[in-house]
Each structure stands twice: as C-alpha cells, then as structure tokens.
Amino acid sequence: MHARSALFDLYGDHLRARGAQAPVAALVRLLAPLGVHPPAVRTAVSRMVRQGWLEPVRIDGQPGYALTARARRRLDDAAARIYRTAPDGTPVPAGSEGPGDWDRHWHLGILREVPNARRREQLASQLSFLGWAPLSDGAWVGLRNDAEVDQILGQEGIAADRFRAPVDEGAVEFARRVWKLDELGASYDAWLIEAKALVDDAGPETGDEQAFAVRSELVHEWRKFLFRDPGLPAELLPADWAGTRAAAFFDFHAERLGPAAGRFVDSCLRHA
C-alpha cells in the first residue's frame, strides 16, 4: 500500500470524523500496521500539502496536518459512494446506489483541443472518479451535469463544449460498452475472492490493531472501484450484477471490523 493512498484512506475513513486532523506522530503510528515506514509517511504528507489536500496545523503544541476544504469535499463524496449513503447520511441498500436524480440523459463533454498523453491521463483519472467515461481522446460521457467537471477542466486549462442527449432503447448496451461492464463485473468477482481470503484471518478474536489493518486493506482495495464504477442506475446494469454481491460483502465486514479499528485509531491519537 502506497503511503499517499494509505493517508487518503486514513483521513477519509477515520480522521474525517475525528476533527479531520492528526499529529504527525499519530499518522506514523497508524500507518505502521500497514507496512508504511515513517520516512514514507513524511514524504507523502509533504506531497499532499503541495497538492492542496493537507495543511499544517499545531495540535496541542505538536506539528500535525489537517484536511483542506477541498479535501473534505472530495472525501465526503468518496465516503458517500464507498458506504452508499444518501445526502442525509442514511444507508442505501446495495444494488440500488445509482443516482436517484438521473434525468435519463447522457451528459457529454467535447474537448475543443485534445491534450497530450500526460494531460489526458491526468484528466482521465479525475473524470473517471466522477463516473465519466471516454468515448474518444476528446469526448467524455457522464450521467449528470456535474459542476466539478467544469472545475477540473478549468484547473487543467482545457476548454470543452457541453451537451445533453436523451437516452433511447439502446441505453443498456451503450452503458455496457462504454463503461466496460463485463470487465468491471469480472473485477468485482475477483475482488470478492481475495476479500474473502483477507477477512478469514480476522475472526471474532481479532485484536484492535489487526482489525484496523484488515479493514484498512479491505477499504483500500474497495476504494479503487470508485475510479471504475460510475454507480449506474439499476436499469442500466446487467441482471445479477456482481457489484451488488461484492457491495453486500464489503458492507458486512466493514461494519463488523469498524468498532475495533476505531478503538485502535483513538488509542493512537491519545498516545500521540
């Protein structure tokens, strides 16, 4: 697990609800069970500060780091998608997490100039997180008119024209092809096999530190689907969608391991 990814997971999964900040000593201690060494933690923190995700603060006289407003918004959105909660915080049943406000239109973005390969890759990473899929090097499609798309394009200095097109009877096949749902379903099945092996080592007698480590790895691997799964409405998904089975498994074990993992986090924060 890379230090930067582990920090994003830690802040998003635990620290966001605990003041969104932590001393450096606590960050080092919390990432140790995940195999992340202190120099890597400090390097990753510095990088996240430069990128605008963290900002330095003093916590009881100690150096620490807090989430920026931008990072809080991104992690709030990520948490809602990871745990499939509605805006009011109530859980959404696995398999029905698609956007309930979908207007039955495709939202298109046509770039006025195709960027170079490096910038295309960077743009793809950000737009994929928002559930958009490429139609070509210069065209993208999404489910809603997301204002953050315009922000991303503006930050990258990329001009685009935006359009809205109604769906037709070919919507299911279009979604399957554009979002590569066959590959995505196979990935969910593969993840489920690995996840079952992972949680088998975390039985009822698991200690707090091990529960934290196992749950962190579970969340870390599950979070990768945020960049691949757009959260399509049920009407656009194949029957017996593999993502529904995987989500139910994740929900059960994330909740089961949550209290012990939280105790370990609280212990590290106190001792720091």
UniProtKB/TrEMBL annotation:
Database matches in InterPro entries: PaaX-like_central, PaaX-like_N, PaaX_C, PaaX_trns_reg, WH-like_DNA-bd_sf
Domain Transcriptional repressor PaaX-like central Cas2-like: 101-160
Every Transcriptional repressor PaaX-like N-terminal domain range: 3-70
Sequence ranges assigned to domain Transcriptional repressor PaaX-like C-terminal in this UniProt record: 179-266
GO BP: any one term: DNA-templated transcription
Pfam family, one: PaaX_C
Protein name: PaaX family transcriptional regulator C-terminal domain-containing protein
The organism of origin for this protein: Kribbella sp. HUAS MG21
